[in-house]
Amino acid sequence: DLRLFALEVLALQLSTSTAPHALNELGQRCVVCLHERLPELALCWVRRGADDEGAVIAARGRVWSELGKGAWNFGSALLRRACDEGGLTRPIAGARDCEDDPLLRLLADHGFCALRLIPWGRPGSSEGVLAAADRDPNGAGLLAAEPFLDIVRRLATSLAEIVDDLVRLSQASEKLQGGLTSAIEELTHTHTRLIEKAREVRTLHDVAE
Fold it and tell me: Looking at residue 50, what is its pLDDT?
């Protein structure tokens, strides 16, 4: 099932034009495919923005829609630790224990017992986290999900590197095309001036004769 899962989430059409959206599509596929296998988990695919604010790309579970602005701030202690450590499982004992973080507090209010955060991507470029919340006090759902989450992390990180390379290639191609266009315009201008000079020389020669 792990191999089939990987094939399902990687059914992407990747090119220089679609590259910027490939990670969003991958996130949507991952959430759908994970939810089909583990419907008891609340899942959320978040992409990090330039201002450290995360944008929710795909989610399963109503709890995520109740999060306020700043809940997915990658500068927060929770997300920063998850990214630094390559992943984090955070038990949620209760609302009082989670007062310092709005994400944990909301999950506790909705009866969730644990949160798993899986960072993906290339730090400083295309990156984000996959969040999985479990209501089972024994963490059975997260335990069953772990092999799938590891595949997601690996695939998303590899895809992020490919996407970044494709974007750079596209930018380099546009720059080269722009340079060629300028060179052609300059050559055309020079050719025109040479023709004009040749006409002037011929005119002077005719007058001299």
Answer: 72
Select from 190, 134, 194, 125 the least CA-distant residue to 161. Answer: 125
List beta partners, residue 90: 115
Which of 101, 109, 107, 114 has its CA nearest to residue 141? 114
Strands 127-134 and 88-91: unpaired
pLDDT of residue 142: 93
Displacement of CA 207 from its chain's centroid (Å): 72
Rounded-to-integer distance, Cα 165 and Cα 168, Å: 5
Of 24, 131, 145, 19, the closest CA to residue 83 belongs to 131
Strand, coil or helix: 94: coil
- Residue 185 has a pLDDT of 64
CB within 8 Å of 167: residues ≥ 6 apart: 16, 19, 20
What is the torsion angle, in degrees rounded to the nearest 10, for the CA atoms of residue 55, residue 57, residue 63 and residue 68? 20
Tens digits of per-residue pLDDT, 92-103? 866 555 667 888
Task: Calculate ∠ Cα 22-144-41, nearest 5°.
Answer: 65
Tens of pLDDT, residues 21-59: 788 888 888 899 999 999 999 999 999 877 778 889 999
Identity at 107, one-letter amino acid code: L
C-alpha to C-alpha distance for 166 and 160, rounded to whole angstroms: 10
